[in-house]
Sequence to fold (136 residues):
Amino acid sequence: MLLLKEHTQEDIFLSFKNFIENNQFPVYKMVSITTNGTPAMIDHLNGFVAKCRENDSFSDFLNYHCMIYQQALFSKMLNIKKIMEVAIKITCSICAKSLQRRLLHSYLNNNDADHSELLLHTNIRWLSRGKFLQRF
Fold:
């Protein structure tokens, strides 16, 4: 983990470069960099990505802006209403009956599953759909 104390583009780049040199990170294997939207990161002349592109030790790489926002936009474009309806119906039917819930819990524990319980879905947070489907 790299803690950044500096605030300027040059300081951020130098801290990152020192980190990869000290840890012998093979920069030539890097294929992409994902940053947030601050000018210190994405400015095409002086930003962190521009400093990496100018440096000869970095190979050609792709750069992305805020993967979380891209995932949120993609999830809005992707119509998963039918999938969610079926998954929620199955989950609710299992959770509504204590015998089925205990049987599922026992089955998951016997098969060394990553999770031992089903999560109920809520529409309060946009990330909860993805977590719910992944666990389902």
Observations:
- The CA atoms of residues 16 and 22 lie 10 Å apart.
- The first helix runs from residue 9 to 22.
- The chain has a mean pLDDT of 76.
- The longest strand covers residues 32-35.
